Amino acid sequence: MTMEKLLWCFLVWISFSNAFGQKDMSKKAFVFPKESDNSYVSLKAELKKPLKAFTLCFHIYTELAKTRGYSIFSYATKKQFNDILIFWSFGRGYLISVGGPEIVFNVPEVTMTPVHICVSWESITGIVELWVDGKPRVRKSLNKGYSVGTEAIIILGQDQDSFGGGFDANQSLVGDLGDVNMWDFVLTPDQINMVYVGGTFSPNVLDWRELKYEAHGEVFIKPQLWP
After folding, report:
1. How many C-beta atoms surround the C-beta of residue 3 within 10 A?
2. Which of 60, 105, 54, 94 is nearest to 75 (CA)?
């Protein structure tokens, strides 16, 4: 990467980092009402060292699953734009990328109701887990030994094809997204089920009750439509 490119990436990261407010988002959701290449939410995470494991949970409500793909969660660093990517791949299922490589979890039944998702990954084994409405899919392996970088730009509702940008309207989320929580370790099955039924388990990377975020474009905060 050239010095000019590194400087540009640093300035982009600084501009994102300095713009965040903090809010308790309990019982609220981000609403992305229409297809767009400029509507998204950027999040700030407190990371002092690379991630060797993580669990990410959220609620999502959209009608897009039967029509096209869309990005849910995009975690980009200067070295890797898909350091963590959670993406619905049309006709395939939930695509999960860590450090570039990706795998797909097939979902046999696509519903038009709110869905609760948890994704976990650990470097030491490469094991990835996907939980849909409290039910686990078969475990898979992805990028064993990798470490997810720090100084990231985290985007909800768009896929970063460059550091903090490169959005495509055809990959944008249209719908509601909420209860986005992230931990720097793998939750146990009992802990995931506790989160699924509405319990709390002290998220230490992203906390929906103390969320540092900035909404861009046409993104609105509304009461959640799920229990």
Report:
1. 7
2. 54
